[in-house]
Design goal:
The longest helix has 22 residues, at 296-317. By secondary structure, the protein is α+β, with helices and mostly antiparallel strands. It starts with 11 loop residues before the first helix and ends with a strand. The strands form four sheets. Strands 1, 2, 3, 5, 6, 7, 14, 15 and 16 form a nine-stranded mixed β-sheet that branches. The chain has helices at residues 12-22, 40-55, 100-116, 142-147, 153-157, 167-173, 200-204, 242-258, 296-317, 336-349, 363-367, 394-412, and strands spanning 59-62, 68-72, 82-86, 119-120, 124-128, 189-195, 208-214, 216-225, 229-230, 265-274, 280-281, 284-293, 320-329, 332-333, 353-358, 373-378, 414-415. It is built from twelve helices and 17 strands.
Length: 416
């Protein structure tokens, strides 16, 4: 298939303007965004995205999980579409680029094709996946997981947030539940552009990360039950301190992850202590341990060892412990042909690049189970993400989207 000429580039200023315009919706308190999934702000961001897509001549599809699909027609009615995109939802204290760059980068691919009056054999579809972050409704990558057949739709609809509101009900409430059957679409390929969310590309001065693999993940939620009691009048030997047990378990998390250095990682980011009062010994602790590794055997080992260690700690302290697997996926190896399209695009355009393993989960990790998939990464300042201070440069955004454009258009096949 013919590759686009190296002189073909996206409009970096237009892309950046779009990123800044989307960032006005669901502003955070410190310069980032709080556009959590299925909130009013999420609905507003979706409406703006749809407006832009329709202005670019695309028709919008919407499935029963709220996944949005903006279609640019191809010349071959029988050719499967090339998909490109990511997600518009954010963390509660999220940045302006995580996920959003991939969606608006996909839109910029369409806009640039229109500018240049280029037709492709395969249709191109820009997708916004629902609830990639998994903050409000666990697990992460929920809707792409339903699309790939990993989760059932009914199970996804029954996910609840901290206030007990169901995913399915909130999807209807904001008006973004479609009629299309989830997963019915067939894909020729999918490409996802994302910020690295790590420090490697910036530290090495590389423009582009060619993502070859994605780390596997295990989210294990632990609930430790002790006994609420007065902190001042309860003798130390008579306490059943769930908070102390949690602290001892978290030391084990660190120890287990370090035993698989350098690629394995582990921590607990979600922690709730009850009743969370200054003068009450915690009677209950609920926390989620996040283990990741590019090797499935390592993830399996870390989870098994944590279960044994936590049970032992709680038994010795006279406490109860419950385990719930709230999320997880196996390590991912992306499609060789799609990965090569990304690497060739970077070389053709003269961008420095390196192979990289994604440390975070992405929608592409699930879609990889049902379609050929690859990812493009650009640097982010200090590797910081899931933080309102998350930052990239316009040049990084442009370079990543240039590579995305070339990989997508080469795969979609230019019609002369």
């Amino acid at each position: 298939m013919a590759a686009p000429g190296e002189n073909l580039r996206i409009n970096g200023e237009r892309l950046w303007d779009s990123l800044m315009e989307m960032a006005k919706i669901g502003p955070g308190v410190a310069g980032g965004n709080n556009r959590q999934t299925l909130t009013d702000a999420d609905g507003e961001g979706r409406a703006l995205f749809q407006k832009w897509c329709e202005a670019a001549g695309c028709s919008m599809g919407l499935d029963q999980m709220g996944n949005m699909f903006a279609l640019r027609e191809g010349t071959d009615l029988d050719a499967l579409p090339v998909y490109v995109g990511s997600h518009l939802d954010t963390q509660p204290t999220g940045g302006k680029y995580d996920g959003v760059l991939g969606v608006l980068g996909g839109l910029e691919v369409i806009r640039t094709l229109n500018d240049l009056d280029i037709k492709t054999k395969h249709p191109i579809v820009v997708v916004n996946w629902t609830n990639e972050e998994g903050t409000r409704f666990a697990p992460a990558m929920l809707a792409s997981g339903v699309f790939a057949g990993v989760h059932t739709q009914d199970w996804a609809y029954d996910r609840v947030d901290a206030k007990g509101k169901k995913f399915g009900d909130e999807l209807v409430r904001i008006g973004w539940k479609g009629d299309e059957e989830v997963g019915a679409r067939k894909m020729h390929a999918l490409f996802e552009l994302h910020i690295e969310q790590g420090p490697i590309l910036e530290a090495e001065g590389k423009d582009i990360g060619v993502v070859t693999h994605g780390q596997g993940l295990c989210w294990l939620q632990l609930t430790i039950i002790g006994k609420d009691a007065h902190t001042g009048s309860t003798p130390m030997p008579m306490r059943k301190n769930a908070g102390l047990a949690m602290a001892r378990v978290l030391e084990k998390v660190e120890e287990i992850a370090l035993s698989h250095a350098p690629h394995a990682v582990g921590a607990a980011g979600h922690i709730d202590i009850y009743p969370n009062s200054r003068n009450v010994i915690p009677g209950k602790a609920v926390f989620t341990v996040d283990f990741r590794s590019p090797e499935l055997a390592v993830i399996t080992d870390m989870e098994a060892r944590l279960r044994v260690a936590a049970q032992t700690i709680c038994d010795e302290m006279g406490l109860e412990v419950e385990f719930e697997k709230t999320g997880g996926f196996d390590p991912v190896e992306f499609d060789e042909t799609c990965v090569a399209a990304v690497r060739n695009a970077a070389e053709r355009l003269g961008y420095s690049h390196r192979n990289i393993i994604s440390g975070a989960g992405h929608d592409a990790c699930w879609i990889n189970q049902v379609a050929p998939t690859a990812m493009v990464m650009c640097p982010c300042v200090d590797g910081l993400s899931h933080n309102e201070a998350e930052e990239i440069s316009p040049e990084w955004a442009r370079a990543g989207t240039d590579v995305l454009f070339h990989a997508v258009v080469e795969t979609a096949e230019i019609v002369e």
